[in-house]
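To whoever picks this up:

The nightly regression suite flagged TetR family transcriptional regulator as changed. Nothing in the input moved, so I suspect the structure step. Input below, exactly as stored in the fixture:
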Amino acid sequence: MARARSEERRAEILRAALEVIAERGYRGASLGAVAERVGLTQQGLLHYFPTKEALLVAVLEERDQWDTGGSGRSAGAWRLDLLDSLVEYNAMRPGIVQTFSALLGESVTEEHPARRFFTHRYAQVREGMAAALRAEYGDALPGGLTPEQAAPLLVAVMDGLQYQWLLDPGSVNMPAAFRDFLTLLRRSPAP
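Regenerated output under the current build:
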């Protein structure tokens, strides 16, 4: 019972942290603001997450769990049709996408606490995308690229579309544009 209550409280803190980071960015977010949002003191929050960096990494890991439906599915278990569904899902939750994108942008600096998380995550995602492409096309896509060559391009399209959509959602239909990209992947080169 106490463990379940502790897990519920932890989930509540993660949701609040995500909101605060979405509103203020990582650098502008404080443990105090997160604690206040969930009715804790900052010291009480430190019981669950000993540092701001630990809270940030937990938020990012939780976001990845949401993307996999909490199934613990590895990036290697994705299929292209599921990626299309993920893009559709992301289009329904701009706050989550905005927070992720802002943290990703901030993490490119050497000292950012999420840099290691994103570096590791992208290595796994590229590997997973290559596996998804290999499952769909074998050792070569219709255009001749290997799955390993195409995987970083697939990831770049997904993330790039998110940025464009966040900046101008009225002009960029993220799900439709991603489906267009998948159509390009499926085409054979002209003779």
